[in-house]
Amino acid sequence: MSVAGRALLVVALLVYPFLDRALGLQTVHAVSDGMIYVLLALGLNIVVGYAGLLDLGYAAFFAIGAYAMGLLNSPVLGSPLYGHVWSFWLCIWIAAAVSALLGAVIGAPTLRVRGDYLAIITLGFGEIIPVAIRNLGDVTIDIGGWRPVERLNLTGGENGVNPVGRPYLPGVPFETDPVPWYFLILIIGALSLWAMSRLHDSRLGRAWKAIREDETAADCTGVNPISTKLLAFALGASFSGFAGSVYAAKLQAITPGAFEFQVSIMLLCMVVLGGAGSLRGVVLGAMLITVFDRVVLSQTTFMVRALGRALGLPALVAADLTLWRWFFFGLGLVLVMLLRPQGLAGRRAASPLVADDVEPVGTPEVASSPRLETIPPWLRERLTTAVAGQGDPVILEVRGLTKHFGGVVALNQVDLVVPRGAIIGLIGPNGAGKTTFFNAVTGLVRPDDGSITFAGASVVGLRPNAIVARGIARTFQSIRLFPDMTVLENVLVGEHCRLDAGVAGAVLRPPSVRTEEARARERARALLAFVGLADKDDATARNLAYGDQRRLEIARALATEPRLLLLDEPTAGMNPRETETLTGLIGLLRRELALSVLLIEHDMEVVMGVSDRITVLDYGTRIAEGAPAEIQRHPRVIEAYLGTGYEQELTAPSGP
Amino acid sequence: MEWWEVLVQQTINGLTRGAVFALIALGYTMVYGIIELINFAHGDVFMLGLFISMAWFTLLGVSRVLTGWELVTLLPLVFLLTMLSTAVLNVVIDRVAYRPLRRSPRLAPLITAIGVSFMLENVALLWKGPAPIAYPDVFPSVEILREWFGIDSAIFVTTKDVVVVAVTIPLMIALHLFVTRTRWGKAMRATAQDRETAQAMGINVERTILITFFVGGALAGAAGLIQGMYYNIGQWWMGYQAGLRAFTAAVLGGIGSMGGAALGGLVIGFLSAWSDQYISARWTNAIVFSILILVLVFRPHGLMGEASTDKA
Amino acid sequence: MLDLADVHTYYGNIRALRGLSLSVQPGEIVTLIGANGAGKTTTLRTILGMVRPRRGTVIFNGHGLHTLTTDRIVRLGIGQSPEGRRIFPRMSVLENLELGAFARPDRDGIAGDLERVFTLFPRLRERAAQKGGTLSGGEQQMLAIGRALMARPTLLLLDEPSMGLSPILVEAIFRIVQDINRQGTTILLVEQNARMALRVAHRGYVIQTGRIVLHDTAAALLRSDLVRKTYLGEK
Fold this sequence. Notes:
heterotrimer; A: alpha/beta; Rossmann fold; 55% helix; B: 75% helix; 1% strand
């Protein structure tokens, strides 16, 4: 939106209530109520849009916020906070905090559960809380005649809480005149939007996006999915708490009936219609739905009735389209999912297939090979000085690693050592356990037995993101980038575990955070230049050519400042030229950055050419270990790959 | 009433509720097993089944208690017609709203299902109005203990209780036979276990899914008729509550397992009856949903399902 | 009978098959060997329609397979024993076999074929009521092959039947493969175990990073050192 457009919008928003009063339209009340829902939708957007968690019980936080304000700031339950000048202004923060706390409490056990189950669990909470509110107005505990608690009123029960204390500002009457309320909500809304857009473009915002796109990849890139999701839940809940408190104060009364499942769904409609993740979209969606709900349906009813009278059709005269609102909301959800799932303002995901027909043989290489001079000095410094401090010649030591999946033995007492600065190849036939090995070392899978020692300390039992922080990075066989994030953002996610900014830092952006972000971007760009993706900062990851995607994955892994790099079939699907470039890169990394590399590969030429030593697995057992030339001649290896007795076959007399 | 009489009464209540929940839960579990979709609209198909059965009764001119010949011919006929109607409805919903999203991420069809649920509820609201609707009293209700056995007891067992069980059990047996003995039932099971290999056997996966929705819808319709016949009341939002309780039953029993759905239905039936009696009907929903949450968090594969290592 | 011409198949961005061509004549056993990751299973999946080639054609007895759905392809007479067996774990041996015959138009022949499979694999008859998931690896492989035979295919695709089996079992399975072929079924055998595959096959193709690099009679391939070099990356 241009500056002029923005200015116009601000003016319109400021002028509107006075215009309304002058024209006698009396719409400000309804619009203010609608704005509260916009605020709620924005909060839900953090949970659904930013973090990708489908929350079907969001109205529960709305209820908590409203009730917190209601109970703290009302004479009904004898609250000491009621009746002061600062009552409202204090209670609104307490209400938000209570909501956030509840969000964390609900989130903690449920966030480990997968997506659709999570949705149902949030729905469950969304149902339980109104029930609790309704019934806690009259609590009596009767144990065989003994009544320790009799008719205790905790929530006002079915009748709700009434009255609720109003905000106090000298000279500003918060009574029946809707204008002060309008501005109050407008200011809160504007501040919320500001905070959210700050959050969106921060370390935390990137972490949310990464988790939403590929949680496992995010985990293996150093982002802690659980604490990050929890933060989304709690923050989303806190906005709902704000909205709920204002709602309670404005309405002067709250009843449990205002927080039913339908409200949660209406909010979901706003987020989904507008485009989850886009602030502009959500505001747009919220406005559209509020307008539709309150204006369109009733106006259309008038028109239909008039038409009915004109045509003499009694059925039309009796029509009442406002009774159809949930039908239209439901239809809206269905249509959006079927026709435009990214919503009105969401970015249309580009085609998942890269136009590869344009890759004829003999095209000049698009990106350049990484060269010595382009190694980012910061990375060289970080890695080599860190390394210089340690004396241990071995960086990774795995002993007796064992893992069962049901009855199948995936890894059987496997030993493997990666000396510092070495390139070790890990090969073996299909199903030999190589990827399971990687998964065990990176924490995706917990070994049943054995030890994994990295730089002198055990990493068994650590979460994947903790292992990344220790210094082990990995790439995946089927490249797992964050497809809808830009190239630069992908690398920045890699830096996540080396940066510090939290929620406050993201919103307030003190100088320390701004410096941190600037430095992070500089470093990311240097890395991209190093791997040969210099001018592609803003390209969307999913649109890159295949070879470039591989490089990006490596750049992202390097951003975590690893000391050990685990590469899972890095040359899969590459042509010979790309393969050569990649092998060159691996060699460079070892030579200049003292990186140790453990490499799974099927391309035997690559492995034999680049590795110092090779370990061979077959059926989860290590069957050979040694230099490439030895391995190529090793009888057990030949057997494993080509079949028992292959060598004999060559020398045996031929016959049918 | 003596305490044990109350217990027996509530247990009978639990059994009849459980039967209805089991029938609905089977629909949830079958669809989930084959396409991993929580069919949010399923409870509303149940609710519409109740109203559709009412419409069939009206169409056939039934307005009073059936007896004798009429009972034996008209009642099964309406059952069949209702089940057919809801089966077709379920299939149409799948074709229109879920099938286009087969390859979408899992949350997309769930959102669509919620949309469909709202649409169906609103249709019922407009069709029948917001107030509870009286279901015609078509089934003769005879107090068994008193009138047949001459026992003077506070326990209230009627022919209606018997017929609920008498209808549900054969339906479940029929389902079991369908799934274990027939070609298409086996195709359903195979597709649920390994879709790709099922295709490699020449099984048309889409047709199998269609059959699954058909059968699930039919069961929901039967449940709706039973509900109406037994409680003589229906309301447009009852599908939401019944649906969630039945879904809890399916999850408790082990989503994807049909035996689990039946078992879960019974357990939730008993639990809700006992909760209504001994705690308070106001809290029953909270209790059922708490069970749902606890199962999903701590034992998502339920009582009879298999633990899976699926992370996504 | 089966002809693949210049097939290019992609998984998302990864090009798994780069201009692959091979053919299978009626009555043969043709083997496709290569290191893992080379594209063997992708070739079979392309034939079966589980993944569509972006370029190239797959013709089976005059039918173009690259536009058909998997279940239609199977009905044309192609049976498969998939990589990793993929038997239905919670269904019995008998049910697995019956499912193999799902698409057959002639329901009467099923009983006879069931008998034939049990004769071929007596162990399966013993375990007819047992759930598939409880069988041993070798028994599962027998079940997978038996299940594929129940469709009375004209072309049988075998994907890595030796995987996870002891050498003795492997010998037994491959002997049975030869029997099946002698009884009239054409076989395309995908294997990593080059030796066993080349001993039973008539002709062999060696695949490496998505394209055929060697093609000859099985005997010739068995004698040459090239196969080993391809597998183990020697120049």
